[in-house]
Amino acid sequence: SRGLGDVYKRQVPTSASLTIDLATATVRAEGTEGGPAKVETAGAVIQPFLAKAPIDLKGIAGALGIEVREDSHLPDDISGSIQKTGKCYCIAINGRHHHHRQRFTLAHELAHYVKHRELIGDGVTDSALYRSNLSDAIESQANQYAAELLMPARLVRKLFREGKASVAEQAEAFDVSTEAARIRMGNVIRT
User: What is the pLDDT of residue 128?
Assistant: First the structure.
């Protein structure tokens, strides 16, 4: 798993310090050479991870300062949750669910962090149907963002042009279910 320092090794000197502001999802890299501080949004932190399939979701979480843990004690009807404890966020994923479902759940919870952080409060728990105490519109946004995060349109099209044109090939490349790949390819390739 990649940590925060791994993400920035090429972008800031090793003597620089990194600070994450969880309230705004910005990352500040302060160099020791007197240069200006570098501030990045969550989107900028995520962007380098979108260049290669499958998308490293745990790497994204680590780069954002989010702890991810598998919890085999969650009931079957709970896929995952995101909670804020102090200044830290933690995502719990149902350890008994299928690997592909765990990846979608992690992407879904990351979506809540990126898009709905101000609504998380004491936590958001998503059922197996990705329902929570948040509105259906917010859950729908999180599902859409999760699909985009797991299978970025640019990368789907690139692999398609390179010959990975079948649903099965894309599902394997992105480490998602064939159903998820079919839906995403239908949304991306036809546009």
Answer: 52
Q: Which two tokens stand for residue 165?
A: 């044109």
CA geometry: angle 18, 118, 187, nearest 5 deg: 90
Distance CA 9, CA 79 (A): 34
CA distances from 105 to 8, 10, 58, 184 (A): 26, 30, 12, 16
- Mark residue 9 as left, alpha or beta (left: phi above 0; alpha: psi -120 to 50; beta: remaining): alpha
Instruction: For residues 39 and 99, give the distance between their C-alpha atoms in angstroms, rounded to a whole number.
Output: 34
Between 19 and 110, whose confidence is greater?
110
Both tokens assigned to 28: 């500040």
| Alpha-carbon span 163 to 165, nearest angstrom | 5
Distance CA 156, CA 169 (A): 11
Paired sense of beta strands 78-85 and 88-94, if any: antiparallel
- Please provide the DSSP assignment of 168-190 as one string: HHHHHHHT--HHHHHHHHHHHHT
Backbone angles phi, psi at 124, to 5 degrees: -130, 125
- Tell me the mean pLDDT in the region 57-72: 96
Residue 74: which of 90, 91, 96, 89 has the closest Cα?
96
| Phi, psi at 122, each rounded to 5° | -80, -5
